Every structure is written in C-alpha cells, then in structure tokens.
Amino acid sequence: MDMSSSENKVKSGVSTNSKWDGQFATVIKWIGAVTALMTVVAGLYHFEQFLSESRERQHRVTELLQIAENQQRSHRFDEAWVNLDAASKLDKNDRKIRRAQEDLAMAWLEDAHLKEGESFHQFVARLEPILDRGLLTAKSQRKADIQAHLGWAAFLRFREAGGLGPEEAYRQALVIDPNNTYAHAMLGHWILWSNRDVAASRKHFDAAIASGRAQSYARKLQLAALQNAHTSQADLEMIAVANNMRKMNQEVDSSDKRRIWNVYFSFLEDAGDYTAKKLLRVIPPEEHLSTFRWLFDAEAFDEGRDLSRSYWLGLLEEAAGRRAEALQTLNSLSVKLTGHSERLRDRTQAAIKRLSASP
User: Phi, psi (5° rounding) for residue 139?
Assistant: First the structure.
C-alpha cells in the first residue's frame, strides 16, 4: 500500500469518527435537553401540587376562622377554641389566626363561665399564654386591650383565692393607652369591688363610655359592679346610669333590667338608707319618670311585681308634678291590692290621701 492510500484511509477513519462524535454529541445534547425538560415539567408539577395544597390549606384556614368567629359570636367559646387550634396547626405563623385566638381569649375572659369542677385558676391558665404572646407584638390600643384583659384574668384568680389583685395591670394598660375602654371599665369595677367608692368608679366608667368603644360591655360591667357593692349609694347610682343609657339610646338587656328593678324592690322597705325620698330625688323627676317607663312599660311582670310597678309609677308621676295622672294610677292600683301586701296597701292609700288633699 502506497502512502497516499494509507493517508486516505486515515482521513476516512478520522472523518467517520468525527461524524460519529458529532452525532453522539447531538444525541447527548438532546438527552440533556429532554432530561432538563422533564426536570422542569416535574418541577412544575410539584410546584403546581404545592400551590394546590397551599390553596387548599388556606381555604381550610379561612373556613375555620369564619366558623370560629360565628361560634365566638354565639358564645360557644370551647368550639371556637378547637377550630382556631386546628387552623393554627395548618399555619402556625398566620397572623390572622393569632389575632383571632387573642380576640377569643379576651371575649372568653369577659364572659367567664366555669365548667363543672373547673376553677378560675384553671380557666385563666388556658387563656393567658395566648395573651402573653400577643402582648409581645401588639401596639398602642391593641396592646392596652390585651394588658387590661390580663388584669381581668388576675382579678378572676384573686376572687377565687386572693393574692395579687389586678389594679397594677389595669394602670399599666392606661399608661399604654390613657383612653382605653377596657382598662377604665375594669378599673372602675375593681374600685367598687375593693372599696365601694362609687364616685371614684364613676370617673373610670365615664371615661370608658366616652371612648366610644365597647360601650355595651362597659355598661354591663358597671351595672354588675354596682349591684355587687350592696350599698344604697351604689343602688341609687344604678338609676342614674340607666337614665344616662336612655339619653344615649343604649340598649338595656333583660338581665340588666332585672338588676335595676331590684333597686326599686329594695327601696320598697322605705327604711334606713333605703328611703323612697332618696330614690325619687336621685335624678330629675321628669327624667326619672321617662327612664322608668323606658325600662319597664313593656316588661311582662308577674302580678306582684306589676303591682309594685304601678306603685312606683304613681310616685314618680307625683314627683314630676303630674298629680292627676298619679292619682289615677294609684286609684287603679288600690282596687287590685285586696289580698296582697298590707304594706303596699297602706302606702298606696297614704299616697292617695296626700294627692287628694288640696295642693
């Protein structure tokens, strides 16, 4: 074989190898491209799966939050607690869930009702960690709300076993937010609980109402605190509070109406600190008459309380200068009193005699 033939064979081999190498490289590139594409497709699939699971999880969280909100509104606190705990397990860092848990803890403390065999210590121990956590990140008004409710938790423990009272927590809340509704209302409640100072408590309840927030809660707490004080001064203050509620067009529920009615029942004794004159003079007579009618005209009383209502209505009409109306009310009452309280009969007759005399 000559040199040229050998060289041609070498060149032919080189050419064949180069062609093969090029084809191999192309195949490898295609394999790489397909692999990359498959990786991308797999990644997109997993990403879509992740998004789908995330959307489903978020949908479930939203659903649980709505259910818990409805349950809280209807005071089914235990059920709301369970649903918020389930939501937290799905997304423990969701701020909406944390805020809902804090709101639930505060609402539950405001309406504390113990289960059979449960103590206040056990009750608040369940809720305080949520509020302690919330206190770390809350700002201004929200922070003061939480601080005040931690004070209320301290009060619930105190009423059960003594120890540290809640006043310091309330005052810390007022440092954070000087106009805070809850801190003022709860401090007003504590003042009545601890020393029965009606005037001092009134300042804080007035501030709570003036804030414009949670007025219904503040009023209910005020009326309950005044009732629990068990003094004639506190009872008379309940009438003044009811009068303010009427003028502010605030709602009085049936339980609070019963509280206020008990004041009139107590003053039927007309003895010691509980004299009818004190009750009739606690607020301006015309306002008192309007408030009494606003509270009790539509109430379905039993016979005994209905008779007492007519007696007080007659006295209030007399105090307001409506002598003819008062005389008519008391005369109508008089014919219904046969077989009823001798004391009420005697007082009704005395009022009729007084009104029948020349002015």
Answer: -125, 150
Domain coverage including residue 78 = 54-111
CA proximity to 85, closest of 67, 111, 110, 59: 67
For the chain, the domain total comes to 2
d(Cα 152, Cα 148) in Å, to the nearest integer? 6
pLDDT digits (tens, 9 = 90+) for 174-227: 999 999 999 999 999 999 999 999 999 999 999 999 999 999 999 999 999 999
Which residues, including other chains, have CB under 8 Å from residue 1's CB and lie 6 or more apart?
none
94-140 per-position pLDDT tens digit? 899 999 999 999 999 999 989 999 999 999 999 999 999 999 999 99
**Distance between CA atoms of residues 325 and 131, nearest Å:** 56
Global pTM value: 0.83
8 A C-beta contact, residue 284 and residue 239: no
Q: Are 80 and 71 in contact (CB under 8 A)?
A: yes
Burial of 37-70, coded b for 16+ CB within 10 Å and e otherwise, reads: eeeeeeeeeeeeeeeeeeeeeeeebeebbebbee
CATH of the domain at 279: 1.25.40
